[in-house]
Amino acid sequence: MATLIKVCGMTEAENIRNVEQLGVDMIGFIFYPKSPRCLCEMPEYLPTHAKRVGVFVNENKENILMYADRFSLDYIQLHGTESPEYCRSLQSHGLRLIKVFSISHLKDLLATSSYNGLCDYYLFDTKTPCYGGSGNQFDWNLLYRYSAPTPFLLSGGINPYSAKSIKEFRHSRFAGIDLNSRFETAPGIKDTERIETFLRELKESSI
What we know:
Elements: E1 4-8, H1 13-20, E2 26-30, E3 51-56, H2 61-70, E4 75-78, H3 84-91, E5 97-103, E6 121-126, E7 152-154, H4 163-168, E8 174-179, E9 184-186, E10 189-190, H5 192-205
Parallel strand pairs: 1-2, 1-8, 2-3, 3-4, 4-5, 5-6, 6-7, 7-8
Antiparallel strand pairs: 9-10
């Protein structure tokens, strides 16, 4: 099963290096000051093989362009209420975008229609009262009603025991998964062994 693996919310150089060596495809860095996983300063090591994803919440365009240049970001992930026009403006600067949509009901999927053609990926997460993950999984069955052309990543509550359910989930636009809080020893610090075991089980379950 060709599934993109994104590990989000990393902060420490050696932890970043160790996770990248597991062969993940994307590593996310959160630039939202209210997040406990906010990357406040440049780590001594940044990924050289995994794609670098910068995560922002309703940030102004000038700051995003600054971070994109300073950290050589491959993707910009927008986790707020950013408009299609805002996405188009970032896209005009050559940035590749991942737009997050919080899902709890079927109507939440309808919001994606205005962003078609403006994003490289959507990321579907569990709806919460505030920005950021809840560690809980939404009803993935809702996504069988999703028929837009943009591929998507699954987030929200994916944990070390999710390999079987990920394997069983089938959708023509399903591109990969996003791992975060359920694979941590502390906010921003990932448990490398836990991720390695999960990836091995995910691979074995797909044979």
